[in-house]
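Quick entry, no commentary yet.
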Amino acid sequence: MHADISRITFRPDRHYSAVIAQQGRVQLDADANEQTAIQLVQARTTAADLIGQHGGPRGATGFELHFLGGSRELDDLSIGGGRYYVDGILLDATRPQPGVPVVDDAHDAHSTEEGEKDAPAETQPPATWTYWDQPDGHRDPERPGDRLPSQFPYLAYLKVWERSVTAAEDPLLREVALGSAMPDTAARLKVVWQVLPLPGSRLELADGANKDQVRAAFAKWVAAQAPSARMAARSERPEHADEDPCLVKPDARYRGQENQLYRVEIHEGGAAKDATFKWSRENGSVTFPVDELDGTWTELASLGSDDKLDLNVGDWVELVDSASLSRGEPLPLLRIEEIDLPGRRVRLSAEPDPSVGRRPELHPFLRRWDHRPGARHTGGGRTKQGTAKVRGGALRIEEGGWLPLEDGVFVYFEPGKSYRPGDYWTVAARTATGNVEWPTDAARRPLLQAPAGNHVHYAPLAWVLGEGSVADLRLAFAPLAAPVPAADAEALEAEATYEAEAAAAEKAAAAGSGARTAGADEQGQPEK
């Protein structure tokens, strides 16, 4: 998640079930975030154990697909509303309907006086999503790669993951009562789902394959998509640390003056020869909402709150918006060439890609990255000397050696692995210890770790055989609750016997009470 957090403390292997707050202690964001993570894992694990890898509730199962072809220019798929679970993650495909506005003549008259344009005529909104307008799909008909396959059959499947959202992307998260000078408060995690096509030729299926065979082939394809990359991190006292006037401990290996959470994120994926990475000392949380683009000039809502969280000439930035983040397709990073402080503008090294930043409703913003192409690769002979190589503004991945970030922080990529854009690792660096927090073995050797995210989940939805022919691959489950069953003959006989015995006991008790009353009356008669 790209958020301004201190560190990530959730470790599933510790099997903690809750975070316990203690009185009189400092409250940390990491503790609250770990409690959220514990609850999410517990809830989703329970759901996955009961439901399976994927499935929807019977009677409300979402993501029913229908092929829409015929006279349309481009093929389409309708996406039925309802709920579905993938690896315990709840998805809702129900399309929200617009609210009902107040019809007020006075408001209409006031709007006319203010010069507002007449509202467009009301139209009935679609009842369901489609392949082309699904909320997080951002498919573009002008891009051939986004179109549905023209060859049948093909598989339509769900791709699911989570990404962070801050006030830079969703201004409604900001509390306006705090004023514009105050930073935003909490960020959010958003579940992203997309219905995507997979050509049948990539599943290596024989003609006439049944549903179970299609599901098995898809599971094999999913297993091949998982990246194998692993990374390690450590701190090392730089060779010229004695010449550094910074006020840190002389023996500190991490030489920074502030606590930081470094984020190392894959930019372009693939094999090591094609992959690149970028890093941020603020977990990628330094962002600047974009007000307007004019060639290479970008007007921003703000240039930052202080000299630690602002922009400087030479910084590398990434222009993104909701569409580009949902698509997960990396674009070249751009360098800040000039800053116009009065106009809140920056000049970039190139004009941004036409696919991003031009639609205000997608809330474009710049994200600052802190790597500096030209950093020296050092490490006491454990890695080759030289200058960090750059492609598209990001650093090339060099496996099998320790690569420096800054202030004595180094990272290591395991040789022979594959990489996926957006996967990331976080490294907490602390001034109190002069070190970084990273798992080690008994000999204090850094351990290779899989990415902390992004975790991508998949589920098959439909095997599209042709126009009007769709084989449904979804699964459904019934509710656990059911009516209490009627009693059998033996239970009914036992119940009747019990009722008869209870009635007899009640009758006997009543008879005994009557006899005692009569005896008392006789004893009370006077003698003649």
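second:
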Amino acid sequence: MSSAAEQEAVQEPGTAARSRAVRGRPPAVWPGSPTPLGARFRVGPDGVAGTNFALWAGGSDSVELCLFDEDGTERRLALTELTHEIRHGFVPGVRPGQRYGYRVHGRWDPWTGARWNPAKLLLDPYARAVDGTFTLPAEVYGHVRDWPQQHVADTVRDERDSAPHVPKGVVVHDDDDWAEDHRPKTPWADSVIYELHVRGFTERHPGIPEELRGTYAGLAHPAAVGHLLRLGVTAVELLPVHQFAHEDHLLRRGLRNYWGYNSIGYFAPHADYSASGTAGGQVGEFKRMVRALHDAGIEVILDVVYNHTAEAGELGPMLSLRGIDNRGYYRLQPDARRYADYTGCGNTLHVVQPHVLRLITDSLRYWVTEMGVDGFRFDLAAALARSMHDVDMLSPFLAVIAQDPVLRRVKLIAEPWDVGNGGYQVGAFPPLWTEWNDRYRDAVRDFWRGALPDVRDLGYRLTGSSDLYAWGGRRPYASVNFVTAHDGFTLRDLVSYEQKHNEANGEANRDGTSDNRAWNCGAEGESDDPAINALRRRQLRNLLTTLLLSTGVPMLVAGDEMGRTQGGNNNAYCQDNETGWLDWSLLEQPGWRELTELTARVLRLRRAHPVLRRRAFFSGLPQAADGLRDLAWFTPRGTEMTEGDWYAPAATVGLFLSGRDIPGRNARGEQITDDSFLAILHADHRPTGFRLPGPPWARSYELVLDTSREDQTTAPGTAHPGDGTLTVPARSVQLLRVAQ
């Protein structure tokens, strides 16, 4: 970098006080290249090291690159080169660790959607590391936030400089080689997803050094990885790790955004989760975490939020995209002052625009190729699939993903809805995609709380949801089955509370859904009654076992296997504290330790038996002359279910899974065969007799799993003859293996 004496004065926009600009001659800006976008350190012409800066800036008039020294000194360099709406330049001498941002000049005309304001320092959308925290004082708003007439406040431009108050991008050195990394590449049918929060999973873990808790390095620690291996999950799905900002209404209440669904930097690992500082070290730390998980055979899936940004609606802050080209990045209403909001968060990215689509796909490819991740779960994916207004499964976003040679090979999970009209799209996404199946969640919850009017829906959900996914070449693993997710009750709270208790969020308990489909087992909240607590633990065993035996891809939420509670809070998005963090001491407590052991045991069963993780839907048709089918349903009388049985209320169902008739072959071309199983799900509060199907189904059975038992350390192993009657304990799952 040039010395201060060699730099000339830089004219500051507006009349208010500005951050310091050094006078003298600015460093040279060579033309550079319009690709790749962002800041890339490299060797330039004549072997000179420096950084190439490139920013798509749409209809702006001009762009200034702003470089910041450690003491906050700012130097502004005009990017005069313009190629296909991209402003670019190569700055010799700028090295990794340099902090930077942009000021973008243009019209201020909110009535037409134009909101350029060069007084606001803007984060590079392609910044790969971010230094600093978004605190949202008045200076970071493009309009005068406290204007007396609030209904027109967004039309009055704020001239105060935001640079002292906003984080900066950081130039990062590309020095990692992934040649030695071994991606697990777990087939979808064999996958078990474990949804976790980087901070929440590690913050209270006693085996992780204190200085690493709450960080990527903490998740890479053997103590954290060891728990995942003992459970037997194949992938972690990380709640958002893109750089995000805290909402103003939370900061005013002394709270923070904990979950992170408020992205502002789609290339940068969230700096608060770094034990390596925020000057670029977070990038290498994240990569080392991915490698550690890969070495353990565990894939890394990111929960990504490309549907909206932290800039919110027209009264939100100006942090990045709004100041670069508001009309180019966001969907606007016919009244261009207002934003089209399909997300409930104030704005929606305009994915139909080529440069927005490029931003998203460049980000996705970056996380795969340079950060090593194995897939993505797309928050409110229906918003990304909208063309101009309606959800369109031939939309540009889905079309680009389908043909991309990198992205079409990774795991793609849709949250298949948004909050706009026609946004509920469960079962509608095309091949390549799997989906969060909330119909599975609702049916299983309702069955175990005794609220299903009949068992038709349950039958579909337990066997891969063929009514939703048996089209277009999709398979049972298109359904990501879950009973709980980060959003809602934990599993323990699902059987302990019927009403939400979100008072700690500061919104008078108005936030969060009231449709919990929960049953508190006779008392609201924690109880001292041994009978209630025993029933709750049994219900947890039932719910977990049902999930892990169902056809499709199971998703567990971190801590559900050990009885984690949020005290009835079903919307803990702002609880960055003991409410949201895992309490690892539960593993030492009787009852919860056994629940963890049960979870691991059922996952071992699933891993050992291909009939429990089928790659094709059941046909329900005879597969041999003896009339045996790959799937059959039985009533407690031992008779196969009739059409009338499906339409009648029922608390007990039995499903026979034939291991003799599994479609497909193994890698050697051999037919896949397995044991056959009978699973009995009994949700009534009284025991019942169940007549076991005799020949041709089985001559005898061996009891493998009984959720009425607290201790699951040894298999029950009891033999039962076919055509005999099994006494099924109240509210339990019985899994029997065909012995002969």
